[in-house]
Amino acid sequence: MAIYLTKESKVLVQGMTGAEGMKHTRRMLAAGTDVVGGVNPRKAGRSVDFDGRAVPVFGSVGEGIEHTGADVTVVFVPPAFARAAVVEAADAGIGLAVVITEGIPVHDAVALTSHARARGTRVIGPNCPGLITPGQSNAGIVPPDIAKPGRIGLVSKSGTLTYQLMHELRDVGFSTCVGIGGDPVVGTSHIDCLTAFQDDPDTELIVLIGEIGGDAEERAAAHIREHVTKPVVGYIAGFTAPEGKTMGHAGAIVSGSSGTARAKKEALEAAGVRVGSTPTETARHVLEALDVLGGAAPDDAARDGARDGARA
Question: Which of 85, 140, 155, 271 could bridge to 193 as Cys pair (CB 3.0-4.6 Å)?
């Protein structure tokens, strides 16, 4: 099992013929993703060869769905055109839109996420690495070779920390890893993923990665306390951020104690979440929680490596 993305998912790539679209489409195909087409009105009717596989280019998302049965789109278009791209996909009836594009104006992010929600389309992102179900499908830019299938569900604001925790826990493996993005407005929240992982029978433990800014993690903590029965391990980035300074990250808006790493850590711990002080310590907490759950666990060398890294 997995959430949102499986081996049956049929993926379109909006912006496939651009430099980033080409590069990551090739990587998605290599990871086993069923990429069934690209979308570019100016190149409709052509096809692009990816290491011997010809992927057709359609003039619209609707045309792509009609010809292929696609149910996922990955958006690599420039910021100025991202809102129109997602609106087009939602109006065509796509089930999932993974918006990799960064730099989308907040006004456009509000518009595209609300429009998609009204049409029944789930948006992941914007400004996110996408999601991967190891061994099944990869929609976005997550490196496919740093984790195997397993029992952990991961939801993260940070792309880099998504990759790091996947690498730290590569010997255990993941059901699905979702990078939701760290912008002020995103289409899928920690709570959405927590709910989905709670309902997924093959996810035994959930890792939640947050960062300073906003109150998403505090709201997630309240949800965990009331609705999540599976163990949750957390990590919050930003403890060393200086007080009274404007942060560069678009989502890192801190006012007083609200939005600080300490406030988020305290809220999560009050809900029973073990929160690591480093990614490696977070991985150690995961291994210890899995030991309590029982069943297959990583070999002793992997466990000892995580523990040694945490002590260092």
Answer: 155
